[in-house]
Amino acid sequence: MAADASLREIATAMGWSYAHAAQMLEIYAALLPEKTDDLAAKIERYMNEAVKRGVK
Fold this sequence. Notes:
By secondary structure, the chain is an all-alpha fold.
């Protein structure tokens, strides 16, 4: 993303859980792939880690 914010920073600023923030960023990445550089890969890594930990 252009702001280069971490998932934690985005979730905190928006009042979202990490999982919800990741879902919203995944939607954003699908809508504007040219603006998201490696965001999709970061989200996928986070979601895989969350599943392993049992986070919703």
